[in-house]
Amino acid sequence: ATVTFSEDNSRVRAELPTGESVEVLLHGATVISWKDAAGDEKLWLSDAAKLDGSKAVRGGIPLVFPVFGTAPDHEQTKTLPQHGFARTSRWEFLGKSTSEDSFSLSSASVKLDFGLSSAAAGLDPLARERWPYAFNLIYSVTLTRDSLSTGLVVTNDGEKPFDCQVLFHTYLRVKDINEVAIAGLASTPYVDKVSPAASAPHDDPLAIAAETDRVYTPASASAAVTVSESGEPKFRITRDNLSDVVVWNPWTDKAAGMADFEPKDGFRQMLCIEPGSVSGWQVLEQGDAFEGAQTITLA
Ligand code: BG6
């Protein structure tokens, strides 16, 4: 048994000898599926998600770069669309690397690498028009038996310095949002985008029972966020060099307002936990690089 692998002009798929799999769309380098050995899907993907490159994918793991949300007061990115252009560009598949131990099937892993640069043919034309910097992005997606990691390296290849934000907009799949508890954000300062006045730190665990849109900045950059369902730990999310964690669920009205969000009550089967560097800006001078990663471990 070996890692199996398939590729066409729109997506790349890899499967471990033990059955776990990951699928990445070249459009946005969006991870659209992550399954365990039993075939159970770990990510939520809208039934109405556009996978043809016509817009950003609603679900999976869209990549946010170089701006989180919109930044009307930030000169360099103020004309960019929400969440930037990485998720609306066509990436190049750079190749795979596998690590396999013939004596132990359970230690196999596969890494898929994707690239996007300012010179790439697949770059969203809006980017070239509105963000005139020379950059290179390498995105790596690593699957092991019990985890999925995504990591982005941003390099400034030009003379002009630029500012950027990075975020992995992970849509986790849950069975019933009413049974979900999030731990690891106790006493953590956050900005509440739904009701800015109400952002007092809280205890663990956090339950989701209404529209939720918060940017947390934990004191410890390495502390894990754990998502449990019906009392059972389900996902454990750790960060590498990413200071922030966004927690998002659109709930009834926002879900109703998104044409590509289906089924309309699908918000009950999803929860976005989004590690990123978004509360400030990474400033990259010529030749500088920034690297950030998340690992989601099945608990
Ligand atoms: C979240 C933001 O990360 O993404 C929300 O905090 C936003 O404010 C959500 O609504 C979805 O964004 P989009 O552009 O994919 O609809």
UniProtKB/TrEMBL annotation:
Entries under CDD domains matching the protein: D-hex-6-P-epi_like
Coiled-coil residue windows: none
Source organism, top-level taxon: Eukaryota
Residues spanning the signal sequence: none
A Pfam family: Aldose_epim
EC id: 5.1.3.15
SUPFAM superfamilies reported for this sequence: Galactose mutarotase-like
Protein family: Belongs to the glucose-6-phosphate 1-epimerase family.
Known function: Catalyzes the interconversion between the alpha and beta anomers from at least three hexose 6-phosphate sugars (Glc6P, Gal6P, and Man6P).
Protein name: Glucose-6-phosphate 1-epimerase
Species for this entry: Remersonia thermophila
